[in-house]
Amino acid sequence: MRKTSKKSTSMEKSNGEDHVKTERVVKKESPDKPKRKLRSVSSRSHQDKVKSENVDGMVVKVESEYDGSGDTVPNRETKLTKSSKKDDSVKRIKRGLEQAIYNARAEGNRSLAMFVRNQRQWNAKPMDDATVERWNSVLKETEFPIDQILPHGSYLMNPGSPDPEKLMKSREAMLDECRRCERLGILYYNFHPVIETMAGQGNTVGSTFEEIHSIISMVKNKQRVGVCIDTCHIFAAGYDIRSKTAYDETMRKFDEVIGFKYLKAVHLNDSKGGVGCRADRHENIGAGKIGKNGFKCIMEDERLDGIPLILETPEGDYPREMITLYSL
């Protein structure tokens, strides 16, 4: 329950083909890690030297989302980024659920988010043993940290739907996805209302810290629940983070009402709307109403060390956007 700038189209079924969505993730390393300006990482899966820019201990990560309803999708040309290519060759990689790990390692990254099944369909092919075996094999091969993998729940689910049929489907889908996570050894599962802060639009639940606290209070085993802060959502819901004073006050309220022990991830998004607008409209970092100062506060907050910071910004110049975050 935790979790990126969108690099390609959302994954969905179209004319019988699968589309894979790849997203960017930024993670802050713990303060005890040495600070490096630039390092070269060897991907054990592809044997490529990957350059990943580090500033004050922060590294770039990639989030890949794949429709886990099938074993693999047809081979697809995967062009490595300019900084990570040893030459101008194009790699052809057989894609499956485990490809999310390969994508992250290929760019020297340490965290990813993904879908464990098609997020836009109610029905999904059962996860077979071969898929689990491939996943475990790649996980072991790449030595990828399982606690840095954060699946996102299906877009169709609404655990609070007043429609009995949709409520039943939502519950069944959530149980199915949790069982898939369990089979893959994944520790966290992010769904909307870990619990993600909402923007407050319509009749959604989870837009205030008090509402999230209320949800957590009803969970018996609280070790199995967590929270993901979305910067655009909390800003749209009325929590100001544009200045150091405002940010400190908002995070003080979060700690007082919910508690940092429940924070498992942060979605980094600027906002097209102003504070309290109740509109879930993501904007690129520094181009929205939150501004760079707000994100500077986040990047300097030592309480977030080791917690995945995930970009969900609109299509754009992602390397430049990540460099912007590094420079804050």
Automatic annotation (TrEMBL):
Domain of life: Eukaryota
Cellular-component GO terms for this entry: mitochondrion; nucleus
Name by which UniProt lists this protein: Apurinic endonuclease
Family classification: Belongs to the AP endonuclease 2 family.
Keywords annotated in UniProt: DNA damage, DNA repair, Endonuclease, Hydrolase, Metal-binding, Nuclease, Zinc
Chain segments carrying region Disordered: 1-89
Gene3D superfamilies referenced in this protein's UniProt entry, alphabetically: Divalent-metal-dependent TIM barrel enzymes (3.20.20.150)
GO annotation terms (biological process): base-excision repair
Keyword Nuclease applies: yes
Domain Xylose isomerase-like TIM barrel: residue ranges: 103-193, 194-320
A GO molecular function held by the record: DNA-(apurinic or apyrimidinic site) endonuclease activity
Native source species: Dictyocaulus viviparus (Bovine lungworm)
Cofactor: Zn(2+)
Biased composition (Basic and acidic residues): 14-33, 45-54, 74-89
